[in-house]
Amino acid sequence: MALPDSWLTPPPGPSTQAIQLATERQQVLTKPPGSLGRLEQLAITLAGLTGSEKPTIDPVRMVIFAGDHGVCSEGISAFPQEVTAQMIANFASGGAAISVMAQALNTSLEVVNLGTVGEVPELPGVRTELIAPSTANLAETPAMDAGQIEAALTSGDNAAQRAHQAGCHLFIGGDMGIGNTTSAAAIASALLGLPPQNLTGPGTGLTSEGLRRKTRVVEKALARHGEDQTPLAVLASLGGFEIAALSGAILGSAARGIPVLIDGFIVSVAALIAVRQQPAIRDWLLFAHRSAEPGHQAVLNAMQAEPLLDLGMRLGEGSGAAVAVPLLRAACTLHNQMASFTDAGVSDQSGDQI
């Protein structure tokens, strides 16, 4: 199997010199130390990841990976499977939440169609990289074969390469795929060793009976899968095309020196796979928000992640990450443009006029 280099090779580390310079700069800006809270550390972290004392996250690249799931045959979603293809068209026409946010934030938005049950015509802004109409039913058989997992990971890595070629300084991945919260819950259960009922949520809005059925499907999938916790085995057995592509994009972005802003439950599960494969990838991840999906907190805990926002969101698409972009921009702007005590002629903590 020809996996991307980023799957097999650890990423570079952040720049310790840039971190030191940014830390020193924060100490002489015209404010009490720590008064900007997490924005200060965010700027320092971004300095290390961008290799610059004065970091920027622009330009930002957003990529949504879309794919259908065979497990939908088990009746685990409140929405029909055709919605995946319909939403791809909605992304392209600018009507989806992430499309609106991309326009408002002046960021690029790319959609990668990896395979849908519904037909998707040629659309502006949509790349067609079809693997299959959907994954197999993970409750009965491995979701992807070796060729499919390779194709999905490579698609994600190629998206990271396009972001690198465009000079992007921040990568945001989004997901679209009816049934993908079932896949994500199964992956998280397998990797974390936690019971499915702790990680399986309502997704698109299941009733209590629907949620019980969904949990039973995840339990069945885990029993079929067994105890193998190696990232590639778990991903191929329980994952979706879009989740695998997201893992490939996260690894590929870090390998190319691009920080990644992680969205909610689905993208965090993809990030967990990446971290389990390459633990050093964790340094390159910033976490945007805490999803309302019940399994998200356990996944965040596994990566020792404290997200920037908690707004009760659970839409996916990268929408929660998009909402956090202004915070990252604010951190950089304050860090880069505030005057130092010397510049402003303001007394420092000692009371000396400097």
TrEMBL record:
The catalytic activity of this protein is classed by the Enzyme Commission as: 2.4.2.21
The catalytic site is made up of E317
Q: Which Pfam families match?
A: DBI_PRT
| PANTHER family, alphabetized | NICOTINATE-NUCLEOTIDE--DIMETHYLBENZIMIDAZOLE PHOSPHORIBOSYLTRANSFERASE
Q: Which residues form the signal peptide?
A: none
Q: What Gene3D superfamilies is this protein classified in?
A: 1.10.1610.10, 3.40.50.10210
InterPro entries, per database record: Nict_dMeBzImd_PRibTrfase, Nict_dMeBzImd_PRibTrfase_bact, Nict_dMeBzImd_PRibTrfase_N, Nict_dMeBzImd_PRibTrfase_sf
List UniProt keywords, sorted A-Z.
Cobalamin biosynthesis, Glycosyltransferase, Transferase
Q: Does the keyword Transferase apply?
A: yes
Q: Which protein is depicted?
A: Nicotinate-nucleotide--dimethylbenzimidazole phosphoribosyltransferase
Similarity section? Belongs to the CobT family.
User: Which reaction equation describes what this protein catalyses?
Assistant: 5,6-dimethylbenzimidazole + nicotinate beta-D-ribonucleotide = alpha-ribazole 5'-phosphate + nicotinate + H(+)
Q: Under which pathway is this protein filed?
A: Nucleoside biosynthesis; alpha-ribazole biosynthesis; alpha-ribazole from 5,6-dimethylbenzimidazole: step 1/2
Protein function: Catalyzes the synthesis of alpha-ribazole-5'-phosphate from nicotinate mononucleotide (NAMN) and 5,6-dimethylbenzimidazole (DMB).
Q: Which GO terms describe its molecular function?
A: nicotinate-nucleotide-dimethylbenzimidazole phosphoribosyltransferase activity
Q: What gene is behind this protein? A: cobT
Task: Please name the CDD domains in this protein's record.
Answer: DMB-PRT_CobT (cd02439)
Q: What is the organism field in this record?
A: Marinobacter daepoensis
